[in-house]
Amino acid sequence: MKKCNICHKPDKTHYRVKSIIHKHWIFCCKECWNQISTQKNYSYGGTRKLK
């Protein structure tokens, strides 16, 4: 399992996002995604799922 770039918790699904705080693309878990998706300049770049 991969780790979230923000909280470092391992998970099977991550979201590729960037926002006004995270100017470069990062992978985050669903919990962190819920917070980032409300920020300004939020961009979604896809979902990474481990098989």
Give an overview of the whole structure:
With 51 residues, this protein is mainly beta. It has one domain (2-49). The chain has one helix and five strands. It has one helix spanning 30-36, and strands at 2-3, 10-11, 13-18, 26-28, 43-49. The protein has a three-stranded antiparallel sheet with strand order 4-3-5. It has a two-stranded antiparallel sheet with strand order 1-2. A hairpin with a 6-residue loop joins strand 1 and strand 2 (10-11). The radius of gyration is 10 Å and the shape is globular.
Task: Summarize this structure as a short list of keywords or feature phrases.
51 residues, 3-stranded antiparallel β-sheet, 39% strand, globular
Chart the SSEs and their pairings.
Layout: E1 2-3, E2 10-11, E3 13-18, E4 26-28, H1 30-36, E5 43-49
Antiparallel strand pairs: 1-2, 3-4, 3-5
**Beginning-to-end CA distance, first to last residue:** 10 Å
> Oligomeric state of the chains?
single chain
Query: Residue ranges: pLDDT <50 for 5 or more in a row?
Result: none
Task: Write the H/E string, N to C.
Answer: EEEEHE
Total strands: the figure is 5
Structural class: mainly beta
Shape: globular
Overall mean pLDDT stands at 96
Alpha carbon gyration radius: 10 Å
Beta strand %:
35-45%
Short description:
With 51 residues, this protein is mainly β. Helix content is 14%, strand content 39%.
